[in-house]
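Researcher: Re-running this chain for the archive, since the previous output was lost when a drive failed. Same request as before.
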Amino acid sequence: MIPRYSRPQMADIWTPETRFRIWFEIEAHAADALAELGVVPHEAAARIWEADAAAGPFDVARIDAIEAETRHDVIAFLTHVSERTGPEARFLHQGMTSSDVLDTALAVQLARASDILLADIDALLVVIERRAREHRMTPTIGRSHGIHAEPVTFGLKLAQAYAEFARNRERLVAARADIATCAISGAVGTFANIDPFVEEYVAGKLGLSVEPVSTQVIPRDRHAMFFATLGVIAGSIERLATEVRHLQRTEVLEAEEYFAPGQKGSSAMPHKCNPVLTENLTGLARMVRGYVTPALENVALWHERDISHSSVERYIGPDATITLDFALARLTGVIDKLVVYPERMGRNLDRMGGLVHSQRVLLALTQAGVSREDAYRLVQRNAMRVWESDGALSLLELLKADPEVTLPDAELEDKFDLGYHFKHVDTIFKRVFGTT
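Model: Regenerated structure tokens:
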């Protein structure tokens, strides 16, 4: 992942230093468990930890140099640990295979990444709720197919986004639990050369659960579900970003991204204030979703193990989590500082001569005894005149003047009451937020 779209806390999870630290902890905890079983001397297991503390950070360049010769990353790492530790290092990796280290370490990294992403979603939810309550009763037009439909409130738009990200949070909690499993089962996963106690011990130390059956790798359906969940979250980010982009269009301009002092929108046109942040979020969401298909294709490994998944995960593990972390933080900033124009919302709501109230008139006519087909024809006939006039004509006045529309004027006027549409806003807010 490029630094432009990286935040330090998430990026740190994927550095070589962090990866090697996790590898060491897996190996050292396994040695402790083997010492409990009497397979490894207690003194040797203690010496492994002591030597590591005295040696300090791992020499990444040295490990890379060894790997250039061995063509095996775990062997290169163990060789470096041996150089730092001394003869007691021979008790490391007893009965284990490389996947025990690699898969368990990936589980730790994805669990840590999940915790950051969950905190990101929590921060976003706080901001969305605040803005939703701020605009709980701010009237705006609802659109279907991009066309004016019926009135809503801007707060309801944001309440919908809140509910969506709340569901995403639940999904990510489940995906985290699914991905956070430990496998220390040896070659082809039979525990032939290592006791299952070691796996349980290491899992407990690392905050993981035990993989029930791991062949030689943790089954990749877990990873597929995890990255699919990230893809769904990315889709929600794009949905909200796209809404902002549409609302910022010049002919709409009901809301727009905050434009900072000194910010420039175009190298050629000084008047431009472009929705660059939400456009960026749209692109980042595409990238995160793009990692879902490779994760799904990783599920079908050969027999007990192959490494066709390995190169894929070296990309998508860091890139998907780093990108999503950045995107969630950016979206939080966009909504936090979003500039909202209630007066423009009101003007847009009124600009089509009352067409947005057509359904209420249709229903009133049917309740007065007119067939639905005739009621629809009467309302549509007048509505099309308003539409063709671009809102210059008034639907209410045309209906009053239509001799086939027999509703009293006072009843017709009642059907054009804007507040009618918002009588259940508090009910919806209570469903979403628990309180109005």
